[in-house]
Amino acid sequence: MKKLTIPFSLLAAAVAFAPAIYAQTSTPAIPRTADGKPDFTGIYQWPTYLPGAERGKSSATTFDRKNFAPLKPGGEAFLEPRTGDPRHDEPRDFCMPAGFPAGMLSANAMQFFQTKNYLTIVHEFQRMSRIIPLDGRAFRKDIEPSFYGDSVGHWEGDTLVIVTKNFKRWMIDDYFYTDPKEFRMHSDALTTTERIQWKDKDTLSYLLTMDDPKTFTKPWSQEFQIKAKPEWDQVGLFEYVCEENNRCPGGKCQGN
Q1: Residue 192's beta-bridge partner residues?
Q2: Is residue 15 part of a domain?
Q3: Cis peptide upstream of residue 101 (ω within 30 degrees of 0)
Q4: Prediction pTM value
Q5: Grouped pLDDT means (10 residues each) for the chain, 256 residues
Q6: 217 FRET partner, CA 20 to 30 A, in 13, 31, 127, 195?
Q7: Computed over its alpha carbons, how large is the radius of gyration of the chain?
Q8: How many domains are there within the chain?
Q9: Residues 80-126: pLDDT tens digits?
């Protein structure tokens, strides 16, 4: 029987290629839908700061000032002081919506439901629900501005990009609990862009870009991470009820 001789060049190429094959097969695959898109369906922790950021805080209810673009002349309206009117200083005490992005950053669980044509995000806080079309449609026309804006999504490779516009002027985060002189308010010209992708089988990267041309000289961004919590699925989201006309506006009870 004739002995088979493998050329050294082919053997070297196979050895060089082997680590690449091993790396691909040893990396956990991200969840995908039947049509090959990344699948975000599941229950998640709220957005948190990246490891090592913001002095180790976990709940990312505020933006980091270092990411802000310079304010435009007149953009100082972005920073309002508390007025003493509880309906202004904490409108959520009166069952007003948290709005976007403040509601998305709230420290409550959230659940994603994904189909071919929609991503629905339900946040435990205020039962905030966003239904985001993924079918390539344009923004709606002639609709009233809203607290959560009008969103459309599209895919850029394995990244889901969600663009939202047509907002009411409203709060962007909870920083006024840190500094009562800074109630951060976006204008009605705000456009947000969310970029969501899997970092690994347990973690989403959530990059949020704020483009408010009435306030800032250019767009600015901050990245958060979102941890999948499949163990929460059995319990699910808790019911959130806000009672209007409560007797304790701003935490100050006013009799019977």
Answers
A1: 164, 210
A2: no
A3: yes
A4: 0.82
A5: 46 41 49 95 94 61 94 90 85 89 93 96 93 94 95 97 97 90 93 97 97 97 96 92 66 56
A6: 195
A7: 23
A8: 1
A9: 888 888 888 888 888 899 999 999 999 999 999 999 999 999 999 89
Contact assessment for residue 77 and residue 230, using Cβ atoms and an 8 Å cutoff: no
In a domain, 180, yes or no: yes
Give the pLDDT of residue 17: 41
Tell me if 22 is assigned to some domain.
Answer: no
- The per-residue pLDDT for 28 is 57
Distance CA 227, CA 57 (A): 15
In the chain, what is the greatest distance between 2 CA atoms, to the nearest angstrom?
Answer: 102
Domain membership flag for residue 155: yes
Single-letter amino acid, residue 133: P
Q: Give, in order, the Cα–Cα distances in Å from 88 to each of 25, 125, 180.
A: 54, 19, 12
Take residue 66 and report the two structure tokens written for it: 């270092």
